[in-house]
Design brief:
The chain is mostly beta strands. It contains twelve helices and 103 strands. Strands 49, 50, 51, 53, 54 and 55 form a six-stranded antiparallel sheet that branches. Helix 2 crosses helix 5.
Amino acid sequence: MPGSLPFYQKHQRHYDHDYRSSETQALVSKYRASSRSSSGYPAHTCTSGGYPAHTCNSGYAPHICTGHGLTSARTSTSRGLTASSYTGLEQSSQLTKRAKATHLAVDREHHIIGYVVPIFRGSLEFAGGYSGVEDSRLKATSASMWGQDHFTSGLEMERSEVSSRKVTIRESAERISLSKTIYENEEHSKRMNKDSLMHAPEFVIKPRSHTVWENQSVRLHCTLSGWPNPHVVWYKNNVTIDPIAHPGKYKIESSYSVHSLEIDRCDFDDTAQYHVSAMNAKGEQSAYASVVVKRFKGEMDTSAPSPRRSYPRVGQVSEYGITFKTHIVDTFGVSFGREGETMSLGCTVIIHPNLERYQPGVEWYRDDVLLAPSKWHQMHWSGDRATLTLTHLNKEDEGLYTLRVTTKSGYETYSAYVFVRDADAEVEGAPGAPLDVRCLDANKDYVIVSWKQPAVDGGNSILGYFVDRCEVGTNHWIQCNDTPVKFARLPVTGLVEGRSYAFRVRAVNKSGMSHPSRTSEPVAAVDAADRTRMRGTSAPVTGQIIVTEEEPAEGVVPGKPLELEVTEATKNYVVLSWKPPGERGHEGIMYYVEKCVSGTDSWQRVNTEIPVKSPRFALFDLAEGKSYSFRVRCCNSAGVGEPSPPTEATTVGDKLDVPAAPERVVATRNTDTSVVVSWEKSRHAKDLVGYYIETSVVGSDTWGPCNNKPVPGSRFVCHGLVTGETYVFKVRAVNAAGISVSSQESEPVLVKAAIASPAPPFGISVLECVRDSMVLGWKQPAFVGGSDITGYFVDYREVIDGLEGQWHEANIQSVSDRAYRVCDLKENKKYQFQVRAANMAGVGIPSLPSNTFLCEEWTIAVPGPPHDLQVTEVRSSSLVLLWKPPVYQGRDAVNGFYVDIKEAGASEEAWRGINKKATDSKFIKIENLQEGEKYVFRVRAQNNAGVGNASEVTEPTLAETKAGTKEIMVDVDDDGVISLNFECSAMSAESKFVWSKNYEEISDTERIAVETKGSKAKASFLAPGEEDIGIYSCSVTHTDGASASYDLTAEELKKLLETSHDHKFPIIPLKSELAVELQEKGRVRFWLQAEKISANGKVDYVFNDNSLSAGEKYKMNFDKNTGVIEMIMESLTPKDEGTFTFQLQDGKATNQSSLVLIGDVFKALQKESEFQMKEWVRKQGPHFVEYLGFEVTPECCVILKCKVGNIKKDTVALWQKDGQEIKSDQQLSFTEGVLKLEIAQISKKDAGVYNIVLKDDRGKDTSTLNLTDQGFRDMMNEVFSVIANSSTALKITSTDEGIRLYTFVSYYNDLLQVTWHYKDSAISFSDRIKSGVVGEQLWLQIKEPTEKDTGKYAIEFNDGKGGLRRTVELSGQAFDDAVAEFKRLKAAAIAERNRARVKGGLPDVVTIQEGKDLNLTCNISGDPVPEVTWLKNEREIVSDDHLLLKFESGKFASFIITKVNSDDSGKYSILVKNKFGTESGEFTVSVFNHPEELGGKK
């Protein structure tokens, strides 16, 4: 009842008054003291039903409570405060007072450290305060209420509370008043003391972990202090819990400082780590607790698809006392959809009995995985129909869907498969979209994305995949890789730490790009350690989660990481993982990762800037093909620890191979539209994802996918096939490395309903017996299982004194006949036998044991019994009986048979013979039967010694003609073919026509051709003659004995042959129909040839229904010996457009053939005729045998040439280009007849239209070659092809700027187009990477190369066709050598460029008069600035007043002598020096006294 309990009992029912903050306790104590000092509180009196009131005084709150007849009350005093709670149970005596039991856990100093969960929770907490002295009625009532489950308990509690409402209403009002007063005083105290007002959240009591049984409820509690009041949020596995999204599942309550999370009816999915987060303006705090849900053994149903809840399958429900029966009807079948479509699956659910307020549990599964509502899956339950809507189909949605309806009495399921085909490609031939995109490993700067390859490649192999990323909250997709990757896994880098991303993948082949895959689940780019900050570990469903907190020691340098290993290695990245060390510092540890190239001792730190927090790290930018070792160091504030032991050398490259093809693909029938395909799994396959199955109609060579989502097993049901078609199947295996080649094709399988195993045979008899073996015979089963019986298996057992022994197999391989010799028996021993029949479906159950037979040798002279009697062609008055001769011949060979008959119900004396004279045939037609009577038959064999024992009696046969029975009909068609035709209207899908001659199946296909179409069968005679005389019969398998026969006698055959001849020759056969061909001078010849025609034959020539006659325009010939008829026309005119017909007649036989020449057909023929006429005229004078063309020589010269004929000495050849005559040195050759014009060093100026004219007095001929536009491009492409083929292998050299790749060609043309590639992608040139041409050398320059420049380089020559590539691998030792040489050349260039130099300004000789001033200045260069030294006569001089030496600005050196004298004469030099080199400059100073001396010298 609302308001009847204080907040701490209403929300946290196992807490008492001690569960308060220190401020609240102080306020309550103050309030009690003031209450005690005041005058006594007046007693309250309540009366009900005339009963006297009871008065209770205790401290603060005296209560007088009366109930209906009896009163129950309990008073509890704690620290002067009196509280009362009503139990809801009647009692006749006053209960003993005792202190209220607390549920708080305290230490020795009475500090609260936790709480204890009471045994009775849920609906029984209202009775928790009674002591052991309560009377027996109270105990019995409590035990009864506890024995019921939550439904009944809740009902009883509600009734109890309703009945006590009047008694407790006043008590509730008092408590509400008290709570309000306490709260107001507490708020006042907070406002008066602002220092205590603002403080961060603090957990007074943290939530405690729980282990509960399935279907129980659990409540997590915590108590918080903090001001302002903290905002509290509950999380499950770091996901916010939303009670609105899970109505009835979660209940979150907050009252004052007490907060709780209640989880209703826990299941396995509720096993998780929960934490509560409290936050206000002063800070944030979190506390963790775990919940483990356990299940009783035996409740798990392994056949059900991963149920969320488990209930007993049978038995009554205690709430209702009834058993529910569930039926799922109006179900969905195997469904087919296409990507992007919406699909709904629905079933009607009937539950009996139908209770209006009871709702079953409805769950949907895909491939045994429970589906939750999402934007992709929408579930609806209307009360009687369950619907699952797939809003936007993707191939991830393909699978087996299961509806599970659960009641208290058990559950029912229904399943069907959903197939999702690829959406139509935007570009024809593009592949299907990838699927199942996931993020395997996420860190703060990378995410490893994986996906599954599509089944459809669009007809061209997939070149690779592109991965796109999108930051959560935006719609901007960014392509992550520049070139497609073939490995279905890619590390995506360049992420912003702390942000969340989604990913998608696209496939590409040479036709184009696929649709993008479904977007992955978002993932945050954070360190793995930050992702797992919460404490505690998960536990299995039967274990317990233990939450511990470890306080590591301070100031300890961490130890070595443990168990370092390479968990994943591809050509793009390597992933390392390890375990933290046992010794660590106070604030946690971080890690440095180091790498080392194998064979060296140089360790290089990978993450030099920021250490990683988690024990997992991915390395990129490793050189493919190189081997590396790795090690890890730990670090904290105390320092960096010792490195871990290094890993084994790991070679960078893809270690995962494409799986091998599956083997032994077997396809078996299943339904009219499906086939079961099974196979052997790929051998030695690693990380296998699944298999794709393909199918093709036999003869079509067109393959299509059966599944678009890889299946993990080795068996799959392929649906959506066409009934009656024959299919073959192939299987491909899939892993991250790619899709395997297809397996071998399965054997063809016809799509039709599956078959069943046959019924047991019967009628086992002995056909022959010798000392150690017996020949058995038996009858065919009545039911063959819808498929032909493929064989029989015989078992035997020995019978000793009436006791049967163990059964033994007589034959391992099946036998096709209904007779078999059982060997290795013991003479004079008794045996029993049983037989089993087998077909495609398997081996049937065995027959009943036979009679007991004695194994002793037969010595009788007469033959044994015939066997395998069969009745066929049953009619109302006749039938045909077939049998097989006896196995035991007797003393002599069998020479005849007797057939006996009797009515089925007649006595043994009623047997009578059919034939008085023995027949040597193994069949007989029995006539004169009584319609509607049942008959049985037997056969006896005879030899010279007499007649042997009779065979086993046949089953009773009713003499009647079944409805729809037809006989074999003889037909002669228009071609004179004689055929026997039989039709059966009672055929099944498994039925076959079996033709026999003299009741032996026809095997000679050279004389008879059998054809079946639907329910009709035809046996045609290919060359009918006397060999074909006999009885022909046709039977239909898997029917109720449908069969018929036809007796082809010699007289009947003669009549049929005559009819065949009459049908065969009424039409004159033609070897060839009317055709047309062109002859010399453009003549047109119409002709045909008759196969055979007599001398009396004649022909009428008709054009457009008008008869033609021979004349100047038409010339006709008719050769009756060869049958060739022709008509020749000199030329065609527009009037000749129409239909030409030749009408033949030879006696009664006629025939005609027509040829229609109208429209484009006629115009083309007329044009060709005119051309042939012109050609003939042209060839009367000089002409071109081969028209003008070109060829390219190995020296890249272009030669124009043509071949001429019918020339003479006077014939002239003129070359022209664009109408201008070209002078050629080529002389006309009468022997070869070839004219040539050579063009050396072809260029654009040589483009044009070239003509060559041949002429003499007989006429002239012209040939033109257009070398403009496309013609010029085609010619240049040939030149480029020659240049490309002359190129040398791509080589590597080094310069002072970097590495240069180059090749030489024999000739370079400015129009040549080349493309440089790096790792199969065209290179984008920049200041660092350039290309060029020097002479015949084509080069690519890489400035300042780094390890990122390693890889395969190629130069591609474009010749308009496939092109030519030259490649070189710049990696490994080649790269290292090139880099070393580059560094050496670069250092030499720098030294040469920066060395000290004297650039000029000094003369060789200076002549100066004494007393003059000498001033010389020279330029100095060098970096760093050189040191300058002046020398005189090779001795160093220094600056003084007379000789002044200056070096200014690091560039100018000055040499100044004031008032020179003769002592200053001499050889001077300047020496400049820096670290890159030294250089000197010299000059001579000559001082003279008088001008005359200077003149004299001159």
